[in-house]
Amino acid sequence: MKTPVVPALLLFCSTALAAPSLEPPKLRLDGSARPLRYTVDLTIVPDRDTFHGSVDIDVDIRTPSTIVWLNAIGLAIEEASFRPDASEALQGRPALPAKPIPGGDQFTGFSFDREVSGKGTLHIAYQGKISRNSSAGIFQLKEDRYTYVYSQFEPTDARRAFPCFDEPGFKVPWQMTLHVPKDDMALSNTPLQSESSEPNGMKVVRFKASPPLPSYLVALAVGPFDAVDAGHVGATPVRVIVPRGKTAQAAYAVAAIPQLLKLLEDYFGIPFPYEKLDSVIMPISDFAMENAGMITYAESTLLSDPARETIDHQRELAATCAHEMAHQWFGDLVTTAWWNDTWLNEAFATWMERKISGQWRPEWHLDVGAVNARLGAMRQDELASARAVRQPIESNDDIANAFDDITYQKGAAVIEMFERWIGAETFRSGVQLYLKQHAWGNATASDFESAISSVAGKNVAPAFNSFLDQPGVPEISVALKCGTKPALELAQKRSLPIGSQAQPQIWEIPVCVAYEAGGAVHHQCSVLAAAKADMELAEARTCPAWLLPNDGEAGYYQIAYQGDLLKEVLADHASHLNVAERVGVLGDLDLLVGAGETPAGVALALVPEFSKDPAPQVVQAAANIAGLLKSETVPGDLRGKGARFVRQEFGERAMALGWLAKPGDSDDTRLLRQKLVPFVATVGEQKDLIQEAEKLAHAWLKKRQNITPEMLGPLLDVAAEFGDRDLFNLLRTAAIQARDHSLREELLQALGSFRNSELAAASLDLLLSKDFDLRESFYPLLFGPLAYAETRGVPFAFVKQHLDSLLQRMPREVGEDYAAVLPTVGGTFCDAKSRDELDSFFRDRVKDYTGGPRALAQTLEGIDLCISARQALAPELTAFLNKY
Ligand SMILES: [Zn+2]
């Protein structure tokens, strides 16, 4: 890990003292001193590069010592002292001066000339930095001509704002006071207590003391904001706080947030835990954070121009708000004791975001979203280098790595599987019990498991832990035996992509099946704990009329259908499989082709039928399978045939839909158009749709001609894929001029979509231009060219040539080190030579990127698997296409 520079602190300490008698901690504080309460006073002028702070920490020093260690990064300590509690024996003595001792890149020690113990107040005055290019600690964002300051402390950056006990287990009250320019608004976790003028155009804003909070949930924001009132939910006042002049763009958020909050209160059976709820908007950023009572959101997630509002945006907004607000109970009111249980916060909130926004808008089919998220997590989890949901934390890199898709999406899928097994209402009682037992305190995964077990009347922990503590995806082979007593023969193993070398293992899997027997539908669950077991179908006397081995497609396992079972599952499927189940069955097959368990021809043979499905989500799942024919695994000379297959199976519907909306289109029609038209244009190489896209894109860029908002992004992407220099210039100018963040995102995405390698290189050069903030341009421009064989080497060549200038412009803090994802520029390589070049370029360099070694290992594994898959699948796909 790269060590952050702390010049001011080192300068001060160079004149300091005798060598400390105690070593600084390695990763965690030792608990010998604990905070009881913080009083923080900060002076923040948004345009400046530094801020001034003082903090008074009421502490309890349980082991007498001459040094107290605190977390601190980049803080220049001006003075420090310890005043013993008035009730202690030292009453009447003056405060003891404390000398700061450097303690590596995460700690500062405060040393005394004699031992201190018991209760007292540690006072520290210091200067800190306001970052301009990262969002770690206290940072600055600009929009129009205004500057705003925000905080982002999770997981380990509160220590950049004040010296503190920066671990989630130290949960105590905080009282915040901010000195800010008199025309700015100042916000924190709690309501205002008082506000008064100060000299020099400043004012002092004092906030009420908070309930117990860990340091990572403390927050502040300063700037010329506008506040939009969103009414009350129960006793809680709700507001959306926007950058100046953006109140009109908050309309949907203002309508959605109170309704979602009410649904959460109902689910938890506990009123919103804090005195107020502000949702504070950050320009440029791409994240949201559940600070207690003061949630921060990326502007592109929460705001939208009412004329450009899309269902996708509404869905993302609702899911993000539900997620962050769910944390107010699950994470804030009850906090995980340490970062090894990050999953408990994040998996729960991810699962809850779909449950609550699905309740709010059932027509959005968020159950299908859950199935697709499970399939996406399984793709990552199949890698030998996948991490477990719950892993021991041995370094700050481990803390940063814990915030990944395995934690969020696999974790959420596992929770959903256990909810289905226990029953939704019982599971909810367990959640409520857990929150009541640990309110305002800390808890662990085993506390959660015991609350669920106590309401379920059985010990769920062994099964739960088998999914949390080991990586990988279980594959269950299922054979239906209809003898005297119909039963399923189940056998489990770890699902592995072709060519993978990972250790075999088994799980305790709650297997839930649905079937029809005796004219009724039955749901049945049992735990598969051994490698093999039979499951009798309790309600069936004869062979069931139909059977689904993964009920609701809610189980975190793949089914390998034996014998004729797949045919039986899919026979007359419209009558017994819902949309999410159809998507799940098709998605599983797609994965099983990659694992060499299902012949590609079997999956592809289903495409003609499901490409005609009425549900757009099912058509999308069929399109994913058809995508096999255009993948790296197909020999180059046969890809034309693959495109023809796509046109034949999907073309007619795509042509009928066209790029332009028609009056009276239903939501499903709009969704289908958005997915199918660009798919057929690009993967099917449908010339009419491509030409139409180019014409419409030019017309829109020149005259902003009317394109339905949800079609603009796909349209510009397709036009760029086949576009020329003229289109490139038009897009670049439009992106520079765009004031709306979501529009700028779409334009940057299109700039990253050129298939012409010279233009792809030109778009990468924009990463070094001052026209765009790197935090907005990084992902679309650097990773866009990976999509095509013609351009997939361009980003790696760019990184090799411009690594130093790129690194200088990127956020490099722990938890936000952009350099860590650089090795993934090789993510679509599929040959040994490129693999070796990537490896030799990054092997030593990634050691300096927080989380970088894992990213390189996963990318290299992905390339190896692609090479194996190409060898194994090419003959099958060739045979299919030659027959076709
Ligand atoms: Zn979260």
Quick summary:
Helix content is 40%, strand content 22%. It has 884 residues and is α+β, with helices and mostly antiparallel strands. The structure holds zinc ion.
Report on the structure:
With 884 residues, the protein is an alpha+beta fold. The protein has 28 helices and 26 strands. The strands form six sheets. Strands 1, 2, 3, 4, 5, 6, 9, 11 and 12 form a nine-stranded mixed beta sheet that branches. It is globular. Bound molecules: zinc ion. Zinc ion binds at residues 290, 323, 327, 346, 349. Zinc ion is lined by residues 290, 323, 327, 346, 349.
Ligand species: zinc ion
**Strand residues, percent:** 15-25%
Which value, in Å, is the CA radius of gyration? 29 Å
Major pleated sheet:
9 strands, mixed
Number of helices: 28
Mean pLDDT over the full residue set: 92
Total number of strands: 26
- Regarding quaternary structure, how should these chains be classified? single chain
User: How would you sum up the global shape?
Assistant: globular
Structural class by sheet pairing and helices:
alpha+beta
Helical proportion, percent range: 40-55%
In angstroms, what separates the terminal alpha carbons?
Answer: 54 Å
**What are the segments in which pLDDT stays under 50 over at least 5 consecutive residues?**
1-21
Question: What's the structural blueprint in terms of helices and strands?
Answer:
Elements: H1 7-14, E1 33-43, E2 50-71, E3 76-84, E4 96-97, E5 99-103, E6 107-129, E7 137-143, E8 146-152, E9 174-181, E10 185-188, E11 192-197, E12 202-207, E13 220-223, E14 226-233, E15 236-242, H2 251-268, E16 277-282, E17 294-298, H3 299-302, H4 311-329, E18 335-336, H5 342-360, H6 366-381, H7 396-401, H8 405-422, H9 424-438, E19 442-443, H10 445-456, H11 461-468, E20 473-481, E21 487-495, E22 509-517, E23 520-528, E24 532-536, E25 546-548, E26 558-561, H12 565-570, H13 573-576, H14 579-594, H15 600-604, H16 607-610, H17 616-626, H18 639-657, H19 667-682, H20 687-703, H21 709-721, H22 725-737, H23 741-751, H24 757-765, H25 774-783, H26 794-809, H27 832-842, H28 852-883
Helix pairs in contact: 2-4, 2-5, 4-5, 5-6, 5-8, 6-8, 6-14, 8-9, 9-10, 14-17, 17-19, 18-19, 19-20, 19-21, 20-21, 20-22, 21-23, 22-23, 23-25, 27-28
Bound molecules: zinc ion.
Zinc ion binds at residues 290, 323, 327, 346, 349.
